[in-house]
Amino acid sequence: MRGCTLFRRRSLAKPYLLRPFCTDGGGSVGGGGDDFQSSRVKIFDRDLKRTHRDRAAWLMRGKDEFVDSVAENLLDRLEDCKKTFPVSLCLGGSLGAVRSLLRGRGSIQKLIMMDMSYDMIKSCKNAEKDMPNNNMETFFMVGDEEFLPIRESSLDLIISCLGLHWTNDLPGAMIQSRLSLKPDGLFLAAILGGETLKELRIACTIAQMERDGGISPRMSPLAQVRDAGNLLTRAGFSLPGVDVEEYTVRYESALELIEHLRAMGETNALVQRCNLLKKETALATAAIYESMFAAEDGSVPATYQVIFMTGWREHQSQQKAKRRGSATISFKDIQKQFGSSS
């Protein structure tokens, strides 16, 4: 990616076990007593997003430092697991980066690469000949994360890198993922968080107020950190974990940022979007962006907040919390003991 510089800042977040993150609507899909509701509200135009993914398949060229950094960070979690994952699914998003950076991690024997875009799958299949084999069979399929075409309890691992934040029913997609996992199967996901592209949001809002006299939705709604914990709990994953990293990518101009978003397939796909963006509003957005955020060398920063989620399908061998009230020693007794000893 020409002219871009990547910086990274990490912060840890405890798993949030708050109220369930629910969606409205009817129609349920069951599996072992676990149901999920299908959202009636359509936030994203999935057909348009498929078109964006088709375009991204042709625009992606060479290495993308930001995407590779996120994929590497996500796959690092496999090195912390002694367990092996013979049958795995790579789900949408940054398929190519995940495939090239696996490097034998997880001892995967069969890898299924799935995306809603035929062109993206075709691009990944064409690139497979240049990938290290590591005694791993790779299969390719076109499918939608919202309607996962995978048999229940058939996978050991699901990896989704920068893809699930475009689903209309994220809790439902995660529940389907859990049901597709075998007991003690692992779910790894990275999604963009609410602080992503905050500089562009500010510049776009100011430009629209100045030029159009009002604002229209140009940026997608994204999950907050607390939502990620709620999502894992709502989906029924055990041992949930959430952490956050912020990446700052520097571009030569605001227009180069837009080109990068197109190459990643991350442009606006809201159902209630405004299809027309006036040229003067677009130029004003770029000018405001550069005047407010440009560095001394003329480069402009863009913040990407990435939320990493980890969850396991329940298994009897996993750690479980003791029943509430089962403790045999009170904290008051412990406090008295240490207080008296000091």
From TrEMBL:
Residues 89-188 form the Methyltransferase type domain. InterPro entries: Malonyl-ACP_OMT (IPR050602), Methyltransf_11 (IPR013216), SAM-dependent_MTases_sf (IPR029063). This is Methyltransferase. GO terms for biological process: methylation; mitochondrial respiratory chain complex I assembly. It comes from the Eukaryota. Keywords: Methyltransferase, Transferase. The keyword Metal-binding does not apply. It comes from Acorus gramineus (Dwarf sweet flag). One of its GO terms (molecular function) is S-adenosylmethionine-dependent methyltransferase activity. GO terms for cellular component: mitochondrion. CDD domains: AdoMet_MTases (cd02440).
